[in-house]
Specification:
5-stranded parallel sheet; mainly beta; 118 residues; globular
Length: 118
């Protein structure tokens, strides 16, 4: 995935890394279902642009806490914003490490370790 992604359902079957200098925009209504052990690692820019009526959903393919690893925004990531998102069933919903990110109007729930970790 690189660039703007149309609203649809994607199944993540392996780790997704957004490389330094790359930008991924998830549009309103997008749903990403992740299998066990998968994660989204951000070294570039991630923009989750959900709305009240069409949030972006990041969830596991199985409905239990810890069924996927979560979103990791790492040192070097820039301009990451997560708005109107639901992050479900991860080990850690959103981890921000060595950088900053904006998280607004979002629900991080049903996690096994931490919801948000800065």
């Amino acid at each position: 995935m690189d660039g703007r992604q149309p609203a649809q359902t994607y199944t993540l079957t392996g780790p997704l890394t957004i490389a330094a200098g790359a930008k991924v925009v998830l549009m309103p209504g997008t749903r990403i279902e992740s299998t066990s052990g998968t994660s989204i690692t951000v070294n570039g820019t991630l923009k989750i642009a959900g709305t009240v009526s069409q949030p972006v959903v990041l969830t596991g393919t199985s409905a239990f806490a810890g069924s996927w690893d979560g979103v990791h925004v790492l040192t070097g990531a820039t301009n990451t914003s997560i708005e109107y998102a639901t992050v479900d069933y991860a080990v850690t919903g959103i981890e921000v490490n060595g950088t900053s990110a904006v998280v607004r109007n979002s629900a991080i729930r049903n996690f096994s370790t931490r919801g948000v970790f800065f």
